[in-house]
Design goal:
This protein is α/β, with parallel strands linked by helices and 331 residues long. It is built from 11 helices and 13 strands. It has a domain of 220 residues: Rossmann fold, CATH 3.40.50.720. Helices cover 41% and strands 17% of the residues. Bound molecules: NADP nicotinamide-adenine-dinucleotide phosphate. The site of NADP nicotinamide-adenine-dinucleotide phosphate has 22 residues, from helix 1 and strand 7.
């Protein structure tokens, strides 16, 4: 059996990734922390590894002991009010891993890095209105900038066979941020931001994890894939699909001007500081909501990996909402 190390295994994407890797008969090592919630990692074939990404010597000993065939570096920080934290977790930790792999001469057949479309930023900054590999990256958040820094480092390391995966918005059961939109629509409010609709793209978590593993096991190296379900949705049609999946006939439609959303994001973030939480609507999030288009080039995903999404947004939303209802997240 070939050994695969999956970091960030306790997170939303990580849990599905572990499940998919087990289905492919890989020997799965799930990298977690002492504080991680392991409630979705119950399969007794999973081998847990506690990794401190700040300790390069400890990383080297783990790599020497296990000599992984594949590594999927999926751990990442997606939400924090502290800019430096993004760069530490999303870029420095990747550097530490890669350095430890090279120094311990345990470089895997493939090192897959889960980056994000956010590393390139929205499509309106590109001259074709489509984010492609050749576009000049224009991240609009510190999260995106930290992912871009990690990508640039990885690409500079000739010793590593890498694949970079750049998912657009990922949704599915257990996801917590987009869930706040479903929750609001379930309460009867459909909200859109800005005077005109955004062009949005999505990927269902189950399709994303199959792409990640297909790309990891594929012999092509030093490639990057933007990952969506190959469709473009307007913010209005997104809300409508959610409302229909929730089984609601009507809702109150609210179109908020950008300056108001900026103020709300600012207030929510400051209020969160007082309570020690970080809200789904925050200052960085507003930059993403303000962007007009998240359309990306998925040609090589189809050509190299023969990708055909099993879930379009309607199917994925129906499955997700059924899960949220079954687990009483939605009443
Ligand atoms: N969800 C999306 O829409 C989306 C879109 C594009 C790209 N991505 C990328 O996909 C990956 C997975 O995202 P997700 O949505 O599954 O996020 P998530 O649910 O927040 O999971 C993040 C994972 O990373 C781990 N992690 C975070 N900070 C860490 C640290 N300091 N040290 C060690 N581990 C740490 C978490 O461990 P704990 O459980 O211990 O906290 C968790 O396992 C991330 O790299 C993210 O940037 C996500």
């Amino acid at each position: 059996m070939q050994k695969i190390l999956i970091t960030g295994a306790s997170g939303f994407v990580g849990g599905f990734l572990v499940e998919e890797a087990l289905k492919k008969d890989l020997e799965v090592y799930a990298a977690v922390r002492k504080s991680s919630n392991l409630q979705y990692l119950t399969d007794n074939r999973i081998k847990f590894i506690y990794i401190d990404f700040e300790d390069t010597d400890a990383l080297k000993s783990i790599f020497l002991e296990h000599r992984f065939e594949y590594i999927v570096h999926n751990a990442g920080l997606t939400k924090t009010p502290i800019k430096e934290q993004y760069f530490k977790v999303n870029a420095d930790y990747l550097e530490n891993m890669v350095e430890a792999l090279i120094e311990s001469k345990t470089v895997p057949s493939k090192f897959t890095f889960i980056s994000s479309l956010a590393a390139y930023g929205p499509a309106e900054h590109t001259h074709k209105g489509l984010v492609t590999e050749d576009s000049i990256p224009h991240p609009v958040t510190n999260y995106g900038r930290s992912k871009l820094q990690a990508e640039r480092y990885l690409k500079s390391k000739q010793e590593i066979n890498y694949t970079i995966i750049r998912p657009t918005a990922v949704y599915g059961p257990r996801e917590k941020d987009l869930f706040t939109v479903y929750d609001l629509i379930n309460k009867g409010i459909e909200m859109t931001v800005g005077l005109t609709d955004q062009k949005l793209t999505f990927i269902y978590v189950r399709d994303l994890v199959s792409v990640i593993l297909d790309a990891t096991l594929d012999c092509r190296k030093n490639v990057a894939y933007f990952v969506s379900d190959l469709e473009i949705y307007s913010s209005t049609s997104y809300n409508e699909l959610i409302r229909k999946s929730l089984g609601r006939k009507r809702s109150f439609k609210l179109r908020l001007p950008i300056p108001l959303v900026k103020t709300l994001g600012f207030i929510a973030e400051k209020a969160g500081k007082l309570t020690g939480s970080y809200p789904a609507l925050n200052i960085e999030k507003v930059n993403e909501l303000e962007a007009k288009s998240w359309v990306c080039d998925t040609k090589n995903l189809v050509n190299d990996l023969n990708f055909k999404p099993r879930y379009k947004l309607k199917d994925g939303l129906e499955e997700s909402i059924a899960w949220y209802k079954e687990h009483n997240w939605l009443k």
